[in-house]
């Protein structure tokens, strides 16, 4: 029997509700004191639970295209609702602390990413080649709900004349690409949704936070980031890429260290490859994976 949303709905909601870490964060949310770091944690945790359920049930096997289109968007839709509520609450906490009387904005459901995952499952009926990428994408999607909430609020407040900063902190042991991106950025300089500051490779657990000018968090964050006021100008704004491109990019980034130099073309991150070079590297990975099988 193919897996449908109804088969896992109950399990997802109940497991999330009984998760001690998530329950603790909900308690803080109800008390009006949830932070962005906690919203990040909540996003990772929710994505992990959904991803684990998929791992148990392996939905790619024996599933019709029709059922994929039911299962994935509805599962991610529920994840989005759960994480979005906590992320909005983090914004409300921040607004209250900074004396800003603007209502927190919600992020939109990222249907491009959701349907990117749907298309990938549909295009790989044997599932095995993309299985691990699929589980990782579910968690990335969930964490991105927080990033997108930050973006929606920074956009809204910036338009209202409030100065906003985006702070990207590397996770422990972050890759070179993420380390280079770490820093505080004037929102106006990175507001394009395709900007690298908003992007994540597979399994990236760096945090993207957001502060107002004059907040003590900003001072602390600047200190945390090596004591220098990192200028955002070093970033060039990239155009919004398709989800197909993003899937290739995360797959290549994931095996970057093992990739033969021929495919790196003298660059030190997958992100610097042209789309054609990226495609070549991607198809090489797919081929070698198939050989290893
Ligand atoms: Zn990262």
Sum up the structure in keywords.
binds zinc ion; 293 residues
Write up what this structure looks like.
The protein is mostly helical and 293 residues long. 58% of the residues lie in helices and 5% in strands. Strands 2-1-3 form a three-stranded antiparallel β-sheet, with helices on both faces. Helix 3 (36-57) packs antiparallel against helix 4, helix 3 packs antiparallel against helix 6 and helix 10 packs across helix 11 (275-292). The longest helix has 33 residues, at 65-97. The chain is globular and about 55 Å long. Residues 222-241 have low confidence and may be disordered. Bound molecules: zinc ion (ZN). Residues 171, 174, 178, 204, 206 line the site of zinc ion.
Please summarize the sheet with the most strands.
Answer: 3 strands, antiparallel
pLDDT < 50 stretches? 222-241
Count of domains = 2
Strand content: 5-15%
Mean pLDDT score: 84
What is the element layout, followed by pairings?
Blueprint: H1 5-18, H2 20-30, H3 36-57, H4 65-97, H5 111-123, H6 131-159, E1 164-169, H7 176-181, E2 183-186, H8 187-190, E3 207-212, H9 216-224, H10 243-254, H11 275-292
Antiparallel strand pairs: 1-2, 1-3
Bound molecules: zinc ion.
